User: What shape does this take?
Amino acid sequence: MTLAGGGSCAQIGAVTKDGKILPLFHEWMAARRIAQALSDQPNYDEESDEANAADDRKLTRAITDTPAEGAAGLAIKNYTFRHLADFSRCSDAAALSSDVWHDTDYEGHEDARLQRAILEDVVRLMPELAPLAAAAIEGAGHAEIFRKAEAPLPL
Assistant: This one.
């Protein structure tokens, strides 16, 4: 994968010592996108769905079990964790949806603010995740969740 600045994720892995987890993450992204494209086909069947789900679980476990050795590895693990909690489908199966915060939409929920801040930090640590996280960070309608979270707590 080539980055906007001309570098590659492989170069980031070499710099951050996360050369093991980065290829797994790329494989996970590709597998999710392929599974999504296949599931859109009219002849897609339950057997194919089960095989794709098994592949997804295998790659997710590999990411989980691979020790992060730097900021990129931690960013990948955090992003993958957030993705597992996102049950909404979007046009890119590897991306977070704007509905990722659905379980945090209630008055005074400080976790919502922290979760978004962590995701923003993840993107700062690994900028190539920005397009995948954009809808979650900038999602329309979710500013209200964070305004509620920033409201003073009742004493």
Q: What stands out?
A: The chain has a mean pLDDT of 78. The first helix runs from residue 9 to 16. Residues 92 and 102 are 19 Å apart (CA to CA).
